[in-house]
Amino acid sequence: MQGRIVKGVGGLYFADTENGVIECKPKGIFRKDGVKPLVGDRVTVDLLPDGTGLISEILKRDSVLIRPEVANATQAMLVFAVNAPKPNLNLADRFLVNMEMAGVPTVLVFNKSDIASADEIKTIKNGFSGSGYEIRFISAKKEEGTAELKKLLKGKITVLAGPSGVGKSTLVNLMQGSRKMETGELSEKIMRGKNTTRHSELLRIDDTSWIFDTPGFTSFDVMGIEAGELCHYYPEMRDCYGKCRFTGCSHISEPDCAVLKKVKTGHISKNRYDNYVMIYNEIKNRRKY
Ligand SMILES: Nc1nc2c(ncn2[C@@H]2O[C@H](COP(=O)(O)OP(=O)(O)OP(=O)(O)O)[C@@H](O)[C@H]2O)c(=O)[nH]1
Ligand SMILES: [Mg+2]
Ligand SMILES: [Zn+2]
Fold first, then answer.
1. What average pLDDT does the segment 225-236 reach?
2. 3-state class of 202 per DSSP?
3. CB of 165 closer than 6 A to ligand 1?
4. String of b and e for 53-75 (b: at least 16 CB within 10 Å)?
5. CA atoms lying within 13 Å on the CB side of residue 49
6. 78 backbone dihedrals φ, ψ, rounded to 5°
7. Is residue 283 within 8 Å of 225, Cβ to Cβ?
8. Is 172 helix (H, G, I), strand (E, B) or coil?
9. What is the distance of C-alpha 30 from the center of its chain?
10. From its phi and psi, is residue 174 left (phi > 0), alpha (psi between -120 and 50) or beta?
11. Beta strand pairing status for 201-206 and 157-161?
């Protein structure tokens, strides 16, 4: 029987199959090979006499993300709140770099526009100007911009990712048309989410569209690339290739740098560039093992 893993908790998995959702365990062979089934995986399930299942095969994955740890997402929506909690645009850029590495197209979604000022929205727009990323300002609460957002989900497997308390689960419930996912208030003093969602979960919207709800995260390391490769994952730096005076230009302090020129003319936003420098130095200074 074929199925798709929609949830995994402590070594137990739930696979959506033609016979409904079945509780499954992975075959021992996976652990031996160091393979772990992920939420989103398409799997072959052998039905056991007690009605539970054994995952005997994991089908080829279209994509694998490490944070959130999900398989087969074909699109990501990075969700932040416009102002409560305050968006961390550095975290956003780290996420975007990782999505570029994973080859998963990403839409930026800023939620809670109902409690946002025009200034806050402008600052965010400017922060990503030139990047080419699509940005949506929505209110899940007032259902503003959400019908348009739902259209983007058609035929895709969309992963919602972002910090705790920004409204991912609220949005998933709205998109999926049920109150399946639990939502939580912000803590009042520090305006931060309370990590209400603890496990990634995949919900079916229709036969071809799925949406992942995932736990919020607060940090994100860019792993698996050299500092010199970082610029490859900034769409707005791509047309600078080969145009700097020095090959191997870090785009930080060299003369005649095509990237620095674009920063100067405002074609690369200061926010995106400053985050580039920060991540670049971080990779450069990381201890090599
Ligand atoms: N004002 C306003 N509040 C919203 C909106 N969307 C969600 N909220 C509130 O934000 C809080 C957090 O929502 P959740 O959906 O639980 O947030 P989450 O991103 O799933 O958080 P974690 O599961 O902890 O990662 C709840 O109190 C929601 O009611 C919105 O559009 N406007
Ligand atoms: Mg949640
Ligand atoms: Zn350069």
1. 97
2. strand
3. yes
4. bbbeebeeeebebebbebbbbeb
5. 0
6. -90, 115
7. yes
8. helix
9. 26
10. alpha
11. unpaired
> In this model, does residue 288 exceed pLDDT 80?
no
Whether ligand 1 lies within 6 angstroms of the CB of 184 is answered as: yes
Tokens (6 digits) for 124: 């965010």
The H or E element containing residue 258 is helix 258-264
Instruction: Give 174's contacts (C-beta < 8 A, 6+ positions apart).
Output: 140, 143, 146
Q: Are 170 and 183 in contact (CB under 8 A)?
A: yes
pTM, 2 dp: 0.95
Which of 121-135, 173-187, 216-230 is predicted most confidently? 121-135
161 neighbors 79 (Cβ within 8 angstroms)? yes
For ligand 3, a single-atom ion, which residues have Cβ within 5 Å?
244, 249, 251, 257, 259
